[in-house]
Specification:
Number of helices: 5
Bound molecules: S-adenosylmethionine
Strand order of the largest sheet: 3-2-1-4-5-7-6
Number of domains: 1
Oligomer: single chain
């Protein structure tokens, strides 16, 4: 659970990283997202401005009530605001956890996960659910921070600081090899960029981003 204050401050705390990296990375990951779209852990709605084209159907899931409150406020403020991005007229908001999605098999063309697979309790169960609800040819768009893939000293630092970081951040995990999990759960990368934030704690800097086809 994010907590009232954490949810309230989330956008402000992310502002520097958004303007330096994430806004652009979100836009690139979402540039081809079309049709019926499911976004898990939508948080405060940071992706709303970043869709390249208005989805036909957009479902935003956010299980945390404090984050969902911020999301609903943003959606209410965005309606009628021309600068709010490419959005359908009606957006569905749900409360489901990614590990247990209340949708039939083959329901969506795209699923979106940005900075969520570090937080879910069981990333493999979540990815299998995302795979299940995707139609044949469906894809995952993702931006996630991960276990350091090249800097061994930082990987050791991530392992050392994980217990403290987890306590401070509603159980966010910096030691997940999410790229590997994506592949192991039946996705094939269409694009995969390995990047690094140039600000913030070193343990959250390594990032993967791109698109993966459900095979
Ligand atoms: C770091 S925030 C990212 C929010 C947003 N996706 C973004 O890009 O800014 C992580 C979000 O994942 C949500 N979350 C945590 N566990 C989850 C789960 N098991 N299923 C779905 N969402 C979850 C949290 O409530 C939180 O809103």
């Amino acid at each position: 659970m994010m907590g009232w204050l954490g949810a309230k401050l989330y956008d402000r705390l992310m502002r520097g990283a958004e303007s330096k990296h994430f806004s652009q990375w979100r836009r690139e990951a979402l540039s081809e997202v079309r049709g019926d779209v499911l976004e898990i852990g939508a948080g405060t709605g940071a992706n709303l401005r970043c869709y390249g084209e208005a989805p036909t159907r957009l479902v935003l899931l956010e299980p945390d009530k404090n984050m969902r409150k911020q999301l609903l406020a943003k959606l209410a403020g965005a309606s009628g605001n021309a600068s709010s991005g490419n959005m359908p007229d009606h957006i569905e908001v749900g409360t489901a956890y990614a590990e247990n999605l209340p949708y039939e098999d083959d329901s969506f063309d795209w699923v979106v996960s940005t900075l969520v697979l570090c937080s879910v309790r069981d990333p493999e169960a979540a990815l299998k659910e995302l795979h299940r609800v995707l139609r044949p040819g469906g894809k995952l768009a993702f931006v996630e921070h991960v276990l350091d893939y090249e800097d061994h000293a930082n990987r050791r630092r991530q392992r050392r600081w994980q217990p403290v970081w987890g306590m401070l951040t509603a159980h966010c995990q910096v030691i997940r090899d999410t790229g590997r999990s994506i592949e192991e759960c039946g996705f094939q990368f269409e694009t995969l960029e390995r990047d690094r934030l140039r600000l913030g704690p070193k343990i959250v800097r390594p990032v993967i981003r791109g698109r993966a086809l459900a095979v």
